[in-house]
């Protein structure tokens, strides 16, 4: 099964990257370790969005709500229930998936833009509840000082945890993208009408897709809590949804690892430009404009395009 | 196998199909002909569930399928190709057909097996039959128009239909490509025993392959019968062939 999914080149690069990331905490300061752990969580979030956006053609405009719900669910399990801390890590993504299923049951009846608009409204409703329900969610103050298991309590521990979980989730999602479900999902992206004509129940496929994507977004939410130890309503505000949408476009939304690269660029940009100016979104705007004009397939798309067009030339020359 | 009776469909008061009837028996090759706007494609859309008829019955294997969702009709054994190319643009030729095969095998909710290794033999066999094997790994959006039209049929075959509906299979094709498609249809009907329902503007093609011809005009079916009967029918000559020399059949 493994051989059917990965070429030797991909396997070598993957193992090499994993090795580097495993060793990095030996050389980097705490701040960079924290930043990388945050990038893993955000990258996982963007990749989970791309599962339905780039591979399913669904206009998932409010994906952050599933991320926020995962984070909040973990925070609430850890602070308000007597359950063991680890149990929250399993239950939180399940809560996200359940929300994905519930919202999906309503939204998949619509297509394209209407689907996206309805999702924004329903998602904002969830946000509003979290924002106002002071006694339960802490309202706009959020929840702080969330306890995490000792094993991953240190910044290095959180880093390794996020690395491993992100890696495992990426593997799983890659498997899904290349499964019959994923193949059919891409068919729906390209041509939903034809999918119906070959006997595919498009809405059911989309519903499953949305539930799965919401699950992984929930996992990403728990990773965020692991790093930050706190949650706040911004985690499910629509602006964050927009940001991860841009990450997918920036990295390349038809390529599996594109959103991961997009997330890396965005989080890094936000962190370092944010030091100099409050208006880091201004830089983002410029980046976005350049992106639309010069790299419609995203950064990774451009890189792959370039290397592929070079290969035949090199062969001819050789 | 398929009996369409007194089917009607109007769009905002315009009667696209008005009292159309059609009968297709197992093993036949039935052609629907008629001038542009006669309602041929609408009729096909009604049969395949893309549209629901306002009135009338569509009996398939003894069951009224009028108004049933298209994916359910497909699962009953009717699959179709489109007049305007309607494929999965970003997928490879192989994957285009594989989607249909996976759908028929009910594997679409399998999330954790690499699809690369699934339904390979059957998909490649279909591509072999249609002469697309050497283009299997090409992105279908980059194919020539003629090849895309053939891929249309290939996708429809992925469902292993009992009744294959082809909406102008040779539209926009060169004469050479048309000849290839004609041979292909003869092969599908002869060797594989498929029942085929198609509509077409190329009269020489229609009269060389169809065992039954149904003539439509302004949403109505005028006549259905064997080619000779249709050719000699006065009504058809007036209404469609019009005595004009454009169709020297």
Molecular structure report:
- Chain A is built from 15 helices and no strands.
- Chain A is mainly alpha-helical and 318 residues long.
- Chain A has one domain.
- Chain A is globular.
- Chain B has 249 residues and is of the alpha/beta class.
- Chain B folds into two domains: 135 residues, P-loop containing nucleotide triphosphate hydrolases (Rossmann fold, 3-Layer(aba) Sandwich), CATH 3.40.50; 83 residues, 3-Layer(aba) Sandwich (Rossmann fold).
- In chain B, helix 3 packs across helix 4 and helix 4 packs across helix 5.
- Chains A and B meet through helix 9, helix 10 and helix 11 of A and helix 2, helix 3 and helix 5 of B.
Q: What would the average pLDDT of chain A be, to the nearest integer?
A: 90
The CATH topology of the largest domain in chain B: Rossmann fold
Instruction: Give helix and strand order of chain A, one letter per element, not per position.
Output: HHHHHHHHHHHHHHH
Largest interface pair: A-B, 32 and 41 residues
Mean pLDDT of chain B: 90
Give the number of domains of chain A: 1
Structural class of chain B: alpha/beta
Strand order of the largest sheet of chain B: 6-7-8-3-9-10
Shape of chain A: globular
Question: For the record, what CATH class of the largest domain in chain B applies?
Answer: Alpha Beta
Counting DSSP H or I runs of 4 or more residues, the number of helices of chain B is: 9
CATH architecture of the largest domain in chain B: 3-Layer(aba) Sandwich
Contiguous uncertain segments of 5+ residues of chain B: 243-249
Give me the number of helical elements of chain A: 15
**Biggest beta sheet attributes of chain B:** 6 strands, mixed
Q: What is Rg of chain A?
A: 20 Å
Please write the string of helix (H) and strand (E) elements of chain B: EEEHEEHEHHHEHEHEEHH
The overall strand count of chain B is 10
Number of separate domains of chain B: 2
The H-level CATH homologous superfamily of the largest domain in chain B, spelled out, is P-loop containing nucleotide triphosphate hydrolases
């Amino acid at each position: 099964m493994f051989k059917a999914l990965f070429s030797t080149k991909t396997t070598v690069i993957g193992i090499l990257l994993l090795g580097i990331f495993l060793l990095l905490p030996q050389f980097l300061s705490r701040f960079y370790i924290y930043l990388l752990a945050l990038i893993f969580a955000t990258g996982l979030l963007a990749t989970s969005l791309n599962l339905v956006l780039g591979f399913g053609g669904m206009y998932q405009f409010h994906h952050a709500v599933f991320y926020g719900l995962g984070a909040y669910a973990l925070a609430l399990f850890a602070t308000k229930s007597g359950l063991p801390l680890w149990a929250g890590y399993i239950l939180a993504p399940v809560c996200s998936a359940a929300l994905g299923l519930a919202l999906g049951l309503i939204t998949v009846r619509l297509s394209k833009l209407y689907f996206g608009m309805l999702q924004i409204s329903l998602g904002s409703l969830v946000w509003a509840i979290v924002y106002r329900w002071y006694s339960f969610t802490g309202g706009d103050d959020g929840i702080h000082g969330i306890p995490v298991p000792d094993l991953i309590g240190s910044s290095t521990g959180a880093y390794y945890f996020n690395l491993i979980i992100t890696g495992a989730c990426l593997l799983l999602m890659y498997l899904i993208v290349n499964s019959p479900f994923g193949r059919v999902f891409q068919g729906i992206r390209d041509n939903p009408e034809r999918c119906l004509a070959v006997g595919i129940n498009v809405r059911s496929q989309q519903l499953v897709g949305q539930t799965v994507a919401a699950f992984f977004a929930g996992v990403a939410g728990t990773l965020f809590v692991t790093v930050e130890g706190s949650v706040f309503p911004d985690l499910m505000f629509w602006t964050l949804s927009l940001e991860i949408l841009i990450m997918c476009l920036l990295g390349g939304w038809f390529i599996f690892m594109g959103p991961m690269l997009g997330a890396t660029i965005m989080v890094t940009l936000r962190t370092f430009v944010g030091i100099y100016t409050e208006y880091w979104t201004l830089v983002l705007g410029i980046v976005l404009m350049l992106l639309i004009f010069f790299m419609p397939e995203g950064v990774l798309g451009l890189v792959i395009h370039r290397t592929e067009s070079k290969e035949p030339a090199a062969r001819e020359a050789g | 196998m398929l009996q369409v009776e007194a089917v009607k469909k109007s769009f905002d008061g315009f009667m696209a199909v008005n009292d159309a009837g059609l009968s297709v028996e197992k093993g036949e090759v039935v052609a629907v002909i008629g001038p542009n706007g006669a309602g041929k494609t609408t009729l096909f859309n009604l049969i395949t569930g893309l549209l629901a008829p306002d009135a009338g019955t569509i009996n398939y294997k003894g069951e009224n399928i009028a108004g049933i969702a298209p994916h359910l009709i497909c699962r009953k054994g009717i699959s179709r190709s489109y007049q305007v190319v309607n494929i999965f643009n970003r997928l490879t030729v192989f994957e285009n057909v594989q989607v249909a095969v996976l759908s028929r095998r009910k594997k679409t909710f399998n999330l954790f097996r690499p699809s690369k290794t699934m339904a390979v033999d059957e998909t490649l066999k279909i591509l072999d039959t249609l002469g697309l094997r050497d283009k299997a790994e090409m992105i279908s959006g980059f194919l020539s128009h003629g090849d895309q039209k053939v891929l249309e049929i290939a996708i429809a075959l992925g469902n292993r239909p009992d009744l294959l509906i082809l909406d102008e299979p040779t539209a926009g094709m060169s004469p050479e490509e048309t000849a290839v498609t004609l041979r292909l249809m003869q092969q599908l009907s002869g060797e594989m025993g498929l029942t085929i329902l198609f509509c077409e503007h190329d009269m020489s093609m229609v009269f060389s392959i169809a065992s039954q011809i149904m003539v439509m005009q302004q949403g109505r079916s005028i006549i259905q019968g064997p080619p000779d009967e249709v050719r000699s029918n006065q009504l058809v000559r007036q209404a469609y062939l019009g005595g004009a020399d454009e169709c020297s059949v």
